[in-house]
TrEMBL record:
Protein known as: Fumarate hydratase subunit alpha
Domain Fe-S hydro-lyase tartrate dehydratase alpha-type catalytic positions: 11-277
Family: Belongs to the class-I fumarase family.
NCBIfam families, alphabetized: PRK06246.1, ttdA_fumA_fumB
Organism of origin: Pectinatus cerevisiiphilus
Length: 280
Protein backbone atom coordinates (compact mmCIF):
# COMPACT_ATOMS: atom_id res chain seq x y z
CA UNK A 1 0.00 0.00 0.00
CA UNK A 2 1.31 3.41 -0.97
CA UNK A 3 1.55 6.16 1.68
CA UNK A 4 1.27 9.91 1.27
CA UNK A 5 1.81 12.51 3.98
CA UNK A 6 -0.85 15.11 4.72
CA UNK A 7 1.76 17.86 4.58
CA UNK A 8 2.32 17.15 0.89
CA UNK A 9 -1.42 17.45 0.28
CA UNK A 10 -1.52 20.77 2.14
CA UNK A 11 1.40 22.20 0.18
CA UNK A 12 -0.04 21.14 -3.18
CA UNK A 13 -3.51 22.53 -2.42
CA UNK A 14 -2.00 25.84 -1.33
CA UNK A 15 -0.13 26.15 -4.62
CA UNK A 16 -3.20 25.11 -6.60
CA UNK A 17 -5.27 27.87 -4.99
CA UNK A 18 -2.75 30.48 -6.08
CA UNK A 19 -2.40 29.03 -9.59
CA UNK A 20 -6.15 28.97 -10.10
CA UNK A 21 -6.51 32.57 -8.96
CA UNK A 22 -3.66 33.86 -11.15
CA UNK A 23 -3.68 31.81 -14.33
CA UNK A 24 -6.72 31.47 -16.57
CA UNK A 25 -6.83 27.94 -18.06
CA UNK A 26 -5.50 27.90 -21.62
CA UNK A 27 -8.75 26.54 -23.10
CA UNK A 28 -10.73 29.42 -21.56
CA UNK A 29 -8.15 31.96 -22.73
CA UNK A 30 -8.27 30.61 -26.28
CA UNK A 31 -12.08 30.60 -26.23
CA UNK A 32 -12.06 34.27 -25.25
CA UNK A 33 -9.76 35.08 -28.17
CA UNK A 34 -11.96 33.10 -30.54
CA UNK A 35 -15.00 34.94 -29.21
CA UNK A 36 -13.23 38.25 -29.87
CA UNK A 37 -12.72 37.23 -33.51
CA UNK A 38 -16.39 36.41 -34.07
CA UNK A 39 -18.04 39.03 -31.84
CA UNK A 40 -20.33 41.24 -33.92
CA UNK A 41 -20.74 44.12 -31.46
CA UNK A 42 -18.00 46.80 -31.42
CA UNK A 43 -18.65 47.38 -27.72
CA UNK A 44 -18.54 43.62 -27.15
CA UNK A 45 -15.16 43.42 -28.89
CA UNK A 46 -13.83 46.21 -26.66
CA UNK A 47 -15.04 44.38 -23.56
CA UNK A 48 -13.40 41.14 -24.71
CA UNK A 49 -10.17 43.01 -25.39
CA UNK A 50 -10.19 44.22 -21.79
CA UNK A 51 -10.98 40.75 -20.41
CA UNK A 52 -8.15 39.18 -22.42
CA UNK A 53 -5.72 41.92 -21.37
CA UNK A 54 -6.73 41.45 -17.74
CA UNK A 55 -6.02 37.70 -17.94
CA UNK A 56 -2.60 38.37 -19.47
CA UNK A 57 -1.68 40.88 -16.76
CA UNK A 58 -2.81 38.48 -14.04
CA UNK A 59 -0.63 35.72 -15.47
CA UNK A 60 2.42 37.94 -15.93
CA UNK A 61 2.25 39.59 -12.52
CA UNK A 62 0.87 36.69 -10.45
CA UNK A 63 -2.22 38.70 -9.52
CA UNK A 64 -5.81 37.48 -9.12
CA UNK A 65 -7.81 37.47 -12.35
CA UNK A 66 -10.78 38.78 -10.36
CA UNK A 67 -11.11 40.34 -6.91
CA UNK A 68 -13.66 37.65 -6.02
CA UNK A 69 -11.33 34.71 -5.57
CA UNK A 70 -14.30 32.54 -4.71
CA UNK A 71 -15.34 29.83 -2.35
CA UNK A 72 -13.05 26.86 -2.91
CA UNK A 73 -14.77 23.76 -4.28
CA UNK A 74 -12.59 20.66 -4.18
CA UNK A 75 -13.17 17.36 -5.99
CA UNK A 76 -11.05 14.51 -4.65
CA UNK A 77 -10.55 10.97 -5.93
CA UNK A 78 -8.83 8.75 -3.37
CA UNK A 79 -7.31 5.49 -4.53
CA UNK A 80 -8.47 2.63 -2.31
CA UNK A 81 -4.88 1.38 -2.05
CA UNK A 82 -3.57 4.74 -0.79
CA UNK A 83 -2.83 5.39 2.88
CA UNK A 84 -2.93 9.02 4.03
CA UNK A 85 -0.61 9.49 7.00
CA UNK A 86 -0.27 12.28 9.52
CA UNK A 87 -3.83 13.51 9.81
CA UNK A 88 -7.19 13.73 8.10
CA UNK A 89 -7.71 14.37 4.39
CA UNK A 90 -10.27 17.15 4.84
CA UNK A 91 -8.09 18.86 7.44
CA UNK A 92 -5.12 18.71 5.06
CA UNK A 93 -7.15 20.23 2.23
CA UNK A 94 -8.54 23.02 4.40
CA UNK A 95 -5.06 23.77 5.73
CA UNK A 96 -3.93 24.08 2.10
CA UNK A 97 -6.77 26.44 1.24
CA UNK A 98 -5.97 28.60 4.28
CA UNK A 99 -2.27 28.64 3.40
CA UNK A 100 -2.84 29.42 -0.27
CA UNK A 101 -5.32 32.21 0.32
CA UNK A 102 -3.16 33.79 3.02
CA UNK A 103 0.18 33.51 1.23
CA UNK A 104 -1.32 34.50 -2.10
CA UNK A 105 -3.10 37.55 -0.68
CA UNK A 106 -6.37 36.22 -2.08
CA UNK A 107 -9.64 37.62 -0.82
CA UNK A 108 -11.15 35.60 2.01
CA UNK A 109 -14.86 35.35 1.35
CA UNK A 110 -16.23 32.57 3.56
CA UNK A 111 -18.49 33.22 6.54
CA UNK A 112 -18.80 30.56 9.23
CA UNK A 113 -22.57 30.87 9.69
CA UNK A 114 -24.79 31.91 6.78
CA UNK A 115 -27.73 33.81 8.25
CA UNK A 116 -27.36 35.61 11.58
CA UNK A 117 -23.73 36.43 12.46
CA UNK A 118 -21.99 35.96 9.08
CA UNK A 119 -18.52 36.24 10.62
CA UNK A 120 -15.65 35.85 8.15
CA UNK A 121 -13.41 32.85 8.86
CA UNK A 122 -10.40 34.93 7.70
CA UNK A 123 -8.79 32.15 5.63
CA UNK A 124 -11.47 31.11 3.10
CA UNK A 125 -12.16 27.83 4.86
CA UNK A 126 -13.95 25.54 5.07
CA UNK A 127 -13.81 24.43 1.46
CA UNK A 128 -16.66 22.50 -0.17
CA UNK A 129 -15.14 19.02 -0.54
CA UNK A 130 -16.51 16.14 -2.62
CA UNK A 131 -14.67 12.84 -2.13
CA UNK A 132 -14.87 9.65 -4.16
CA UNK A 133 -13.02 6.39 -3.51
CA UNK A 134 -11.67 4.85 -6.72
CA UNK A 135 -9.37 1.94 -7.69
CA UNK A 136 -5.61 2.50 -7.50
CA UNK A 137 -3.17 4.24 -5.19
CA UNK A 138 -3.26 7.82 -6.46
CA UNK A 139 -4.82 10.97 -5.06
CA UNK A 140 -6.44 13.25 -7.63
CA UNK A 141 -7.37 16.75 -6.51
CA UNK A 142 -9.20 19.34 -8.60
CA UNK A 143 -10.06 22.74 -7.21
CA UNK A 144 -12.62 25.14 -8.58
CA UNK A 145 -12.68 28.59 -6.93
CA UNK A 146 -16.26 29.77 -7.47
CA UNK A 147 -17.11 33.45 -7.35
CA UNK A 148 -20.60 34.34 -6.23
CA UNK A 149 -21.53 36.95 -8.81
CA UNK A 150 -22.19 34.00 -11.10
CA UNK A 151 -23.01 31.43 -8.39
CA UNK A 152 -25.93 33.58 -7.24
CA UNK A 153 -27.47 33.31 -10.70
CA UNK A 154 -27.24 29.52 -10.90
CA UNK A 155 -30.38 27.46 -10.43
CA UNK A 156 -32.18 24.13 -10.46
CA UNK A 157 -35.43 22.92 -11.97
CA UNK A 158 -37.18 19.73 -10.93
CA UNK A 159 -38.78 18.49 -14.14
CA UNK A 160 -40.74 15.34 -14.86
CA UNK A 161 -39.90 12.87 -17.64
CA UNK A 162 -42.77 14.14 -19.80
CA UNK A 163 -40.98 17.50 -20.06
CA UNK A 164 -38.32 15.80 -22.19
CA UNK A 165 -35.59 17.53 -24.15
CA UNK A 166 -37.68 20.62 -24.85
CA UNK A 167 -38.36 20.98 -21.14
CA UNK A 168 -34.64 20.77 -20.39
CA UNK A 169 -33.85 23.45 -22.95
CA UNK A 170 -36.61 25.69 -21.59
CA UNK A 171 -35.38 25.23 -18.02
CA UNK A 172 -31.78 26.08 -18.90
CA UNK A 173 -32.75 29.14 -20.90
CA UNK A 174 -35.04 30.45 -18.16
CA UNK A 175 -32.13 30.40 -15.73
CA UNK A 176 -29.77 32.02 -18.25
CA UNK A 177 -32.24 34.76 -19.20
CA UNK A 178 -32.90 35.50 -15.55
CA UNK A 179 -29.14 35.78 -15.00
CA UNK A 180 -28.73 38.11 -17.99
CA UNK A 181 -25.50 40.14 -17.79
CA UNK A 182 -25.11 39.80 -14.00
CA UNK A 183 -22.67 36.82 -13.99
CA UNK A 184 -19.97 38.81 -15.86
CA UNK A 185 -20.31 37.12 -19.25
CA UNK A 186 -19.14 35.59 -21.48
CA UNK A 187 -20.24 32.70 -19.33
CA UNK A 188 -19.19 29.09 -19.09
CA UNK A 189 -22.28 27.05 -18.29
CA UNK A 190 -22.31 23.73 -16.50
CA UNK A 191 -25.52 21.70 -16.78
CA UNK A 192 -26.27 18.67 -14.63
CA UNK A 193 -29.08 16.33 -15.64
CA UNK A 194 -30.32 13.41 -13.55
CA UNK A 195 -29.68 12.08 -10.09
CA UNK A 196 -31.49 13.92 -7.30
CA UNK A 197 -31.74 17.65 -6.67
CA UNK A 198 -28.34 17.75 -4.98
CA UNK A 199 -26.67 15.30 -7.38
CA UNK A 200 -27.76 17.31 -10.41
CA UNK A 201 -26.10 20.38 -8.88
CA UNK A 202 -22.97 18.30 -8.28
CA UNK A 203 -22.95 17.21 -11.94
CA UNK A 204 -23.28 20.83 -13.04
CA UNK A 205 -20.27 21.83 -10.94
CA UNK A 206 -18.20 18.93 -12.29
CA UNK A 207 -19.11 19.95 -15.83
CA UNK A 208 -17.19 23.20 -15.39
CA UNK A 209 -13.94 21.24 -15.00
CA UNK A 210 -14.14 19.70 -18.46
CA UNK A 211 -12.04 21.48 -21.12
CA UNK A 212 -14.17 23.74 -23.29
CA UNK A 213 -12.93 21.98 -26.41
CA UNK A 214 -14.13 18.55 -25.25
CA UNK A 215 -17.74 17.61 -25.94
CA UNK A 216 -19.79 15.09 -24.01
CA UNK A 217 -18.92 11.52 -25.02
CA UNK A 218 -22.61 10.73 -25.61
CA UNK A 219 -23.49 12.11 -29.08
CA UNK A 220 -27.01 13.22 -28.12
CA UNK A 221 -25.73 15.16 -25.12
CA UNK A 222 -22.95 16.61 -27.27
CA UNK A 223 -25.57 17.82 -29.76
CA UNK A 224 -27.58 19.33 -26.90
CA UNK A 225 -24.50 21.17 -25.65
CA UNK A 226 -24.06 22.77 -29.07
CA UNK A 227 -27.75 23.65 -29.39
CA UNK A 228 -27.84 25.26 -25.96
CA UNK A 229 -24.68 27.26 -26.69
CA UNK A 230 -26.24 28.56 -29.90
CA UNK A 231 -29.43 29.51 -28.04
CA UNK A 232 -27.51 31.35 -25.32
CA UNK A 233 -25.43 33.26 -27.86
CA UNK A 234 -28.57 34.38 -29.64
CA UNK A 235 -29.95 36.07 -26.50
CA UNK A 236 -27.97 39.27 -27.10
CA UNK A 237 -26.59 39.22 -23.54
CA UNK A 238 -23.10 39.36 -25.01
CA UNK A 239 -19.88 40.11 -23.12
CA UNK A 240 -21.45 42.20 -20.33
CA UNK A 241 -22.75 45.05 -22.49
CA UNK A 242 -24.53 43.17 -25.27
CA UNK A 243 -23.32 41.21 -28.26
CA UNK A 244 -23.08 37.72 -29.69
CA UNK A 245 -20.53 36.14 -27.32
CA UNK A 246 -22.76 35.46 -24.33
CA UNK A 247 -21.19 32.09 -23.48
CA UNK A 248 -17.97 30.30 -24.35
CA UNK A 249 -19.28 26.79 -23.76
CA UNK A 250 -22.11 24.69 -22.37
CA UNK A 251 -20.87 21.48 -20.72
CA UNK A 252 -23.37 18.81 -19.68
CA UNK A 253 -22.81 16.00 -17.20
CA UNK A 254 -25.55 13.48 -16.49
CA UNK A 255 -26.36 10.45 -14.38
CA UNK A 256 -29.11 7.95 -13.54
CA UNK A 257 -32.30 9.23 -11.93
CA UNK A 258 -35.67 8.06 -10.62
CA UNK A 259 -38.40 6.93 -13.01
CA UNK A 260 -40.49 9.92 -11.94
CA UNK A 261 -37.76 12.54 -12.13
CA UNK A 262 -35.75 14.75 -14.45
CA UNK A 263 -33.67 17.14 -12.32
CA UNK A 264 -31.83 19.87 -14.22
CA UNK A 265 -29.22 22.08 -12.55
CA UNK A 266 -27.36 24.99 -14.11
CA UNK A 267 -24.15 26.34 -12.62
CA UNK A 268 -23.10 29.56 -14.28
CA UNK A 269 -19.49 30.67 -14.22
CA UNK A 270 -18.14 34.01 -15.34
CA UNK A 271 -15.40 34.45 -17.93
CA UNK A 272 -12.87 33.74 -15.14
CA UNK A 273 -13.59 30.00 -15.12
CA UNK A 274 -10.76 28.95 -12.85
CA UNK A 275 -9.53 25.50 -11.87
CA UNK A 276 -6.38 23.55 -11.11
CA UNK A 277 -5.55 19.82 -10.91
CA UNK A 278 -2.96 17.56 -9.31
CA UNK A 279 -2.46 13.80 -9.28
CA UNK A 280 -0.28 12.79 -6.34
Amino acid sequence: MRTIQVEQITQEVAQMCKEAAYYLPEDVYEALKKGRETEESPVGRDVLDQIIKNAEIAKTEDRPICQDTGMTIVFVEVGQDLHIEGGGLNDAINAGVAKGYTEGYLRKSVVAEPLFDRKNTQNNTPAIIYTEVVPGDKLKIEIEPKGFGSENKSGIKMLVPADGVEGVKKAVMEIILHASCNPCPPMVIGVGIGGTMDKAAYYSKRALLRPLTVRNAHPKYAALEKELLDLVNKTGIGPQLGGTTSALAVNIEWGPTHIAGLPVAVTICCHATRHSKRVL
